[in-house]
Amino acid sequence: MQRIKIFGGRITWLQWRRIAQLASVYSPDSPLHITTRQDIELHYIRPEDIAAIQHGLAQVGLTTLGAGGDSVRNITICAGCGLCRDGFDLLPPAQLVCRYLDSQAAILNLPRKFKISFSGCQHACAKPWLNDLGFVAQPDGLFTVIGAGSLGPKPAPGIRLYNNFPAKDILPLCIAAIAFFEQCGDRENRHRARFRHIREKFGDEVFKTELDGRFSRQKIQQSWPDVQIAAGNRNIKLIHRLQLPNGNISVEQAVELADIAEQKNSELRINLEHALELYGTELIELPDDLAVMSSNPIIIACPGSTSCPRGLVNCWTTGDIIRQNLAGRKQAAMRINISGCPNNCAQSATSDIGMVGMLRKQNGITNQCYRLYTDGGNGRNDRLATQGEIVSAMDIAGVIRRLLK
Questions:
Q1: What is the pTM of this model?
Q2: How many Cβ atoms are within 10 Å of 213's Cβ, its own excluded?
Q3: Which of 213, 260, 328, 387 has the smallest count of CB within 10 Å of its CB?
Q4: What does the alpha-carbon distance between residue 237 and residue 215 come to, in Å, rounded to a whole number?
């Protein structure tokens, strides 16, 4: 697999077409897979083709470097940032952080992964409570900073680190936090190696004091650029949100979308919930195979046992079953998150309706099952979902219908 970083979910049509072209040549039997960190994955790649793929990506300004492993992962920005009402355009501070961090070799050899997100308004669509550092723009143009959250088998949301935080201090805080993580993170036990585990080891207040001290020292070491944030272009509207089935879109559909939307000068953005968002000033009529995605329920599903060695259940099949059963039903924008194992890669433990895969034996037969979770805050606040019953994968469609009622 090759995971391609799409910074902040912003992708040009040239880049989109190049990825589709590479997929058609080097992974013709699998779709493009959109992740929950605004990346695009190509699956079933032959090792001998990796260099050609990475060269092709570099020609259009894309890379796989840092998309996985013990590194600063792709920096995420809410898809509507700078375009939604009452929000700010946070691309400038996010770009500043990205440019600086990409120049530092140390970010590729951290104790574990480190995640940063930017939300342009108080809706916090970039899920700051699930990140190592999450910046949320306040109505006055300052920031609320959330930090040291993560999921995994024992999820814990982040904590509030700062209120009324100025944009010019974002970069030195990121540098200080990553240095703190690099020095104090556990390199022996990967299960206790995230930034959040330093917080748990120190205790919240001591952790905040230590981080703030490092930040204060970093801030006075040099002068930092004064980043300007501004309200976005509110004349540009959301035209379509395409909820991709299990985060997948075929190469043919990807090219079809580009052919239609590019000529209308529409902008393509990837959100954090397996969906593509089209923004522009002119309405676009989509063909049926793409238009149907606009009415799909919001189902976020990791690959599970289809490609992950840790996956216990087939999440994509479950997602298909739920989608078929909800077809044509009007419903609120409920998130249904399906994880193939207790690692919670689909963020099930924070969702409206979450499902975590497990195996249970009954009468000597191993069955695929799910532990249910309900009423989470979707990473937009610190509310974890409530753990519920265990149900058979065969019964899941009826259970979901009952929960939605």
A1: 0.95
A2: 12
A3: 328
A4: 38
